[in-house]
Amino acid sequence: MVGNPKEVIEKTFLQFYADGRVGEFFLADNRNTLKGFSKLKDENPKKLKDVAVSLVRVGYLKGEIKREKTETTVHFHGITEDGLEYLKKLKHVN
After folding, report:
1. What is the mean pLDDT of the segment spanning 16-24?
2. In whole angstroms, what is the distance from residue 29 CA to residue 84 CA?
3. b/e for 56-79, b at 16 or more Cβ within 10 A?
4. Which single residue of 8, 11, 19, 43 has CA 20 to 30 Å from 1?
5. In 3D, which of 47, 58, 35 has the Cα closest to residue 5?
6. Residues β-bridged to residue 34
């Protein structure tokens, strides 16, 4: 599904970990290591990365943001307690 709203991408990332699954993922503007996210497979990689950066920055996903010359990348590997609370709010919105 191309052109997912930001909230759908957020829910997909957060729900992955809330369901007890594990994995570490890398995202950049033109590439990523997302496996198991079939709903997002055709989504713009930069949009996915931007959403993941936002989730890490506000503390909903455990991870690290790196800035290298002209590119920002993000690694994430889990959900935080705040992320679980935010996910509950997202579920009530849609």
Report:
1. 94
2. 26
3. beeebbbbeeeeeeeeebbbbeeb
4. 19
5. 47
6. none
Both tokens assigned to 59: 């503390």
Cα dihedral 21, 23, 28, 29, rounded to 10, equals -30
In the structure, how many helices (H) and strands (E) does the chain have?
3, 3
Count of other CB atoms within 10 angstroms of residue 19: 8
Helical ranges in 1-94 per DSSP H: 6-18, 45-57, 81-93
Confidence of residue 68 (pLDDT cuts 50, 70, 90): confident
Residue with tokens 């496996």: 35
How far apart are the C-alpha atoms of 45 and 50, rounded to whole Å? 9
Q: Which of 37, 75, 81 is nearest to 56 (CA)?
A: 75
* 25 bridge partner residues: 76
